[in-house]
UniProtKB/TrEMBL annotation:
Keyword Transmembrane: yes
Compartment annotation: Endoplasmic reticulum membrane; Golgi apparatus membrane
Domain MSP, chain residue ranges per copy: 16-143
Transmembrane segments: 160-179, 191-211
Keyword Thylakoid belongs to the record: no
Alphabetized UniProt keyword annotations: Endoplasmic reticulum, Golgi apparatus, Membrane, Transmembrane, Transmembrane helix
One of the record's GO cellular component terms: Golgi membrane
Topology of this chain in the membrane: Multi-pass membrane protein
Role: Plays a role in differentiation and/or proliferation of mesenchymal stem cells. Proposed to be involved in epithelial-to-mesenchymal transition (EMT). However, another study suggests that it is not required for EMT or stem cell self-renewal and acts during later stages of differentiation.
Pfam families: Motile_Sperm
Name used for this protein in its record: Motile sperm domain-containing protein 1
Amino acid sequence: MHQQKRQPELVEGNLPVFVFPTELIFYADDQSTHKQVLTLYNPYEFALKFKVLCTTPNKYVVVDAAGAVKPQCCVDIVIRHRDVRSCHYGVIDKFRLQVSEQSQRKALGRKEVVATLLPSAKEQQKEEEEKRIKEHLTESLFFEQSFQPENRTASSGPSLLTVFLGVVCIAALMLPTLGDVESLVPLYLHLSVNQKLVAAYILGLITMAILRT
């Protein structure tokens, strides 16, 4: 007689939960971000029921905070921020999605999603751009200082590397900027504004170094 194969028992809390995104960012000055959507996926062969919990439920409205997901389907969960105030800027809240089989009460899996309210999307982008420019400048300065001759005399002129870097920066500034449609230069040679700012900054440092020699 053939023994009937038993389906492996699912252990409580060990079932992977698939949700996207795993981070929600709300911007106070952009009302379109006050409404976010979480998508819960069910890749399994059995239906799941879910429940959404929150550490600060008074700040959010969760549409359909509990429900079910059919096998190999997904469901969208709408989350609205209803308490947009400056005192909440930068505070990290957490949502927990718990899933279980429809016929059982124990939670088979859980997943946490963090939520943050920021004052302005433009300020956030500006900070990221400034951070990237600062990193580029630091790398450029380190590169230049690493290749300075150790025993350079006061009478010696600028090194070949310094002259080469200066020529490269001048060439970069002469290249067209991204968005210049009428330029005959290939598109892959178009530089962004930030890249040209870095080139201009490095060229200024090289000019000062040459004048001091």
